[in-house]
Amino acid sequence: MPIQSKLGRLTADAREALRAGDLLRVCDIALDALQVGPDGFASGSDDGFALAKMHVLAHARMGNTCEAVELYRRYRLADADDLDAQALEARLAKDEAFATDPLDFNKVRNAARIYLAVYGRFRDPYPGINAASLLLIAGDQVAARKIALELLAVSRLQQPADYYDLATVAEAMLILGRLDESAALIARAAALPDADLGSRSTTARQFGLIGAALKLPPASLAALLAPLAPPAVAMFSGPEIDSAGWREDSFAAAIDRLLAEQGVGIGYGSLCRGTEIVIAERLLARNAELNVVLPVLEREFEARFVGMDSRWDGRFRRCIERAATVTVAADSAYVGDRQQLRYGSVVAAGLARLRALQLDAAQVSLDAWQEPPRMSDMASVSGPGVLPDRSPEPIVPGKGPPARKAGGPIAAVTHERAVRAILFADFPRFSRLAENVLPAFWDEVMRRIAGVLDRHGNSVDCRNTWGDAVYAVVDTARNAAFVAVEMLEALSEVDQAALGLEERSAMRVGAHLGPVYVGQDAVTGMRNYFGTQVSRAARIEPITPPGAVFVTEQFAAVLALEEQHAFSCTYVGRLELPKGHGPQRMYRLARASPVAAKLKRVRAGRRKSA
C-alpha cells in the first residue's frame, strides 16, 4: 500500500479514536505513522500534518503538558499557517498556566493574549471564546463580556448547526451570566450526532473552570454540566457457567437494566464462558465500547475458560473481533493459579480507572458473582487487594463446581505464587568508570540505593545487586512506586565529579507487576522470585532513559487503584522490548505535582458527589 494511503487510513483511525476519547490509541496511531515511511510527518502531507496535531492534542487532553509542548516543537507546528496549529499553542500555554499553584494569573493572561492573536488573524470563534474565558478567569470581566457579545453577533453563530458552534454560543452566554440560556444551548449541543465523547469531555472541563470563576453554586454547575457527562466506565467480572439449565435470558435482562441505570458506555473485563461473555454481548448491543482484558495468553484462556463448545467459542471469537482493545494482563500460560485470574481482574479494574480519569467519568464495578448481579461505585476504591479472590472453577447453578471439561487437566502448582512488583535499575555509564573511582561509586551510589530499600524494608520482599544493577521485589505497586522515585531522588545528590564524569548521569529504573513464583534460591539459599513476569520486567530497564522510571501499563493500572494522588503516569507509547519480548505500552512514572494531586482530589470528589 502506498505511503500516503497508509497515512490516510491511520489519520481516519486517529480521528475516530479522538472522537471516542481513546487518547492512548491516538498516541499509538501517531507513533505507528512515524514508521510508515522515511518522510513520516515531515512529508508535508495533509494527513501527516493532521496526525501531528492530533498527537499533540491527545497528550494535552491527558494532562501531559510537557510532552505535548515537546511534540508541538518537534513537529514545528508553530510554523504552520493553520488555525488549529496556532490555537494549539494557545491551548498549551493555558495548560501550563493552570499547572501553577497558586494560579499564576500572568500566565493566564499570556494564554489569553495568544488566543486573541489567533482570533485576530483567523476571525474564528474558537480562539475568540477561549480568550474571553481566560480573561474572565484572570479577573477582566469587562473584556471577557465584550468578546462574548462580539461573538454572538457573528452570523455563523446566530444559526449554530454543529456541536462546537452551539457550545461556543453556550459558553458566551455563560460568560455573560445568562445561565438558563447557556444550559438550554449545551443540552441541545450534547444531543447532536457530532457531540462525541472527546468533545463533550473537553467542554465540561472548560465550563467547570468558568463556573468556578463565576462562583456558581455547586448544584447549578452540576445541572449545567449534566448533559456533557461522559458515560460511566465499568469493570465487569463473573463466574464461568457450564450448564444448559442456566437462565441466560433473565441474567441478560438484569445486565441490560444495570447498564442502563448506570449509563455505562465503556466496559473492561474478561470473557469466560457464561456470565462474562453475556455481559460483553450486552455492552456491544447498546453500542458501548468493549475492552477485553484476559488474564493469560488468549489461546490458553480460550482453551481453559471458554472451551471448544460452539455455544460459547463462537460467541467468544465474535466478542474478540468486535472489541475496541484486547489486552493480555500476563503473557504466560495458565498454571492453575488463582492469583493469575485475580491479577487479570485487578488489571481490568485499573485500566477502567485510568480511562475514567482521562474522561473525568464515573467508574463502576459490575459484579456477576452474586445472584442477582449488582453494580457498585468504584470511585472511592483505593489500596491493595481491592477485589475479592474468586474461584476459577466453573459454577453450575445448584450443583457446585464440577470437573473442568475443556483444556485438559491442570498441573498442580508446586511453588508458592504471589502478585508482586518487580524493579530493575542500573547506572548506564558504569562501564566507563575508571578502576580507581569504583569505591566512590559504591559509596556515592549503592549506599544511597541501600538506604532507600532499608527505609521500605517491610515492603521489600527481595533485593539483589551485581555490578551497577539493582533488583528488588516489592509487595505492592504503590510501595514500588515510592521506592523507584526515591531511588532517583537520592541519586540526584551524587557527586558526579567524584565518579570522574564530566556530564551528569543518573540511574534508570524499569518496573512491572505480575504473578510470579516464590521459592528458595538453590544457589544463594535466599528467598527469590522467578517466572515469565520477572523476565519481562528485566527487559524494561534497558529501554528506559537515564534519570527516568518506566513502568508497564499493568503497573500503571494497578497503581491507579492503590494510589490515586501521589504519582503521575505519563503515557510514552508502545515500545519494543529487547530479546523478542514484543511491544509493550509504557508509562513514565513521577511524583505528581501539587497542582495535579489537588486536581485529582477535586475531580474525585465531584464524581463522588454526582
CATH architecture grouping of the largest domain? Alpha Horseshoe
What gyration radius follows from the Cα positions, in whole Å?
26 Å
Number of strands: 14
Mean pLDDT: 86
Helix-and-strand structural type: alpha/beta
Shape: globular
Number of self-contained structural domains: 3
Summed up, the helix count is 23
CATH class of the largest domain: Mainly Alpha
Largest sheet features: 8 strands, mixed
- CATH fold annotation of the largest domain: Serine Threonine Protein Phosphatase 5, Tetratricopeptide repeat
CATH superfamily of the largest domain: Tetratricopeptide repeat domain
Low-confidence stretches: 385-412, 606-610
Could you characterize the architecture of this molecule?
The chain has 610 residues and is of the alpha/beta class. The relative contact order is 0.07. Strands 7, 8, 9, 10, 11, 12, 13 and 14 form an eight-stranded mixed beta sheet that branches. A six-stranded mixed beta sheet has the order 4-3-2-1-5-6, sandwiched between helices. It starts with a helix and ends with a helix. 50% of the residues lie in helices and 16% in strands. The model is unreliable at 385-412 and 606-610 (pLDDT under 50). It has helices spanning 3-19, 23-34, 46-61, 65-74, 83-97, 105-122, 125-137, 141-152, 155-158, 163-175, 179-190, 197-213, 218-225, 248-262, 275-285, 298-305, 310-322, 338-359, 438-455, 477-491, 532-538, 553-562, 594-609; strands spanning 232-237, 264-269, 289-294, 325-328, 363-367, 374-377, 416-426, 460-466, 469-474, 508-520, 527-530, 549-552, 567-577, 582-591. A hairpin with a 6-residue loop joins β10 and β11. It folds into three domains: 3-228, Tetratricopeptide repeat domain (Serine Threonine Protein Phosphatase 5, Tetratricopeptide repeat, Alpha Horseshoe), CATH 1.25.40.10; 232-377, Rossmann fold; 416-609, Nucleotide cyclase, GGDEF domain (Alpha-Beta Plaits), CATH 3.30.70.1230.
